[in-house]
Amino acid sequence: ESIAKQQAGNKGVGVDVELTTAINIDNETFLERNFTLTERTYCLSRPDPQASFAGRWSAKEAVFKALSSYDDVVQSKGAAAPLSDIEVVVSTTGAPEVVLHGDAKAAAYAAGIKGVTVSISHSGAYSVAVALAQ
Amino acid sequence: ESIAKQQAGNKGVGVDVELTTAINIDNETFLERNFTLTERTYCLSRPDPQASFAGRWSAKEAVFKALSSYDDVVQSKGAAAPLSDIEVVVSTTGAPEVVLHGDAKAAAYAAGIKGVTVSISHSGAYSVAVALAQ
Amino acid sequence: ESIAKQQAGNKGVGVDVELTTAINIDNETFLERNFTLTERTYCLSRPDPQASFAGRWSAKEAVFKALSSYDDVVQSKGAAAPLSDIEVVVSTTGAPEVVLHGDAKAAAYAAGIKGVTVSISHSGAYSVAVALAQ
After folding, report:
1. ipTM
2. Strand A116-123 to strand C116-123: parallel, antiparallel, or no bridges (unpaired)?
3. CB C67 within 8 A of CB C132
4. What's the pLDDT tens digit per position in B14-25?
5. Residue C67 forms beta bridges with which residues?
6. Which residues of A touch C120 (CB under 8 A)?
7. C73: which of B81, C11, C69, C107 fits an S-S bond (Cβ 3.0–4.6 Å)?
8. How far is C106 from chain B (nearest CA, A)?
9. CA–CA distances in Å: residue C97 to residues A65, A66, A110, A123, C131
10. Do A15 and C117 lie within an 8 Å CB cutoff?
11. Which residue in B6, B15, B21 has the most chain A C-beta atoms within 10 A of its own C-beta, making it the best mutation to test that interface?
């Protein structure tokens, strides 16, 4: 990422849509590989855990796509980072916040990305998330 | 919002998906509380009023989420603003435009937000909107 | 587009959702009018051509909406550009990339738009795309 590109405010965008039923929350191996303990505890405490896991899954995928629009992230190990390296926490205001760990964090830092924001929505059978890397 | 943050081009993003059938357009109290007279007149003039109201509802929710990613908005009365304070009008080019009123406008101004853009789409049973606060 | 607006990092956003079944891939005239030869070859080589065409269609519409949020684009011939002028190619990393041609390219250049990024997602019966013009 050149200084010129950073000054131009270059951004990466990612979107993800998921059928809620596509997430199998009875598969503990799947949940443990892709969600942090904090995320699992949160989703399991919600009125509809499957919808919560689907929303977080959408958010992780959207963030992954937003990061992957930076060549520097893709060329590093960032593109092979496990989804648990992209953590979605709940801020004090109730909005979702992205916390990067491990290779995803290192790759984003190396690419000059200052932050990633995400928004999640559910309705009917679907979850949708949009992420912005900036 | 610090000068440094503004120069970094920090943005807030919001997404919302809605089942068209989730909007009850026979509930006049609901419509009057959440939509301006201009919005109601416009939606009722469209070929499919329910889809139009659902799209505008999605847009308002997406804008609300985009604004709520700024701490300064949440800590002010902005987060408690009624959805009718987030008006979606039709520009001369046919694209949706956001006009903020009341507490939503004051909170956005105080947070250093210069503008909010939104896009709306419908297909099948759903409406989706994405908003960007900048 | 004034210098001030460019420095403020003003962005345009577009979203589009499509029912996969809304795209008739047996209509060759429709495909040839809206998709480049490269796009058609790519989509037809995929496991689910209809879903691929629907995803690209969503992406083109999302880009069109993102560009149309700039007055300068709408006032020029950019708003009347055929969708085949908005080409979605696959980058070396597998992510979608936008290449503008003809009137769409000229209009974006004249409006000071430096680039357009897009993200596409499929699930169940729908495709969703989000585009960012910057």
Report:
1. 0.90
2. unpaired
3. no
4. 999 999 999 999
5. none
6. 15
7. C107
8. 19
9. 12, 12, 22, 29, 10
10. no
11. B15
At B7, is the secondary structure helix, strand, or coil? helix
B47 vs C34: CA distance, rounded Å: 26
Q: Which residues of B touch C120 (CB under 8 A)?
A: none
Chain B CB contacts of A124 under 8 Å are: 17, 19, 22, 125-126
The tens digit of pLDDT for each residue in C52-100 reads: 999 999 999 999 999 987 776 766 666 666 889 999 999 887 889 999 9
* Residue to test with chain A: of C58, C90, C132, C134, most A Cβ within 10 A: C132
3-state secondary structure of B12: strand
Q: Do A11 and C117 touch (CB under 8 A)?
A: yes
Give A8's DSSP letter: T
Q: What is the pLDDT along chain A (134 residues), one digit of tens a residue?
A: 333 343 345 679 999 999 999 999 999 999 999 999 999 999 999 999 999 999 999 999 999 999 987 776 766 666 666 889 999 999 887 889 999 999 889 889 988 998 999 999 999 999 999 999 98
Cβ within 8 Å, pair C115-A61: no
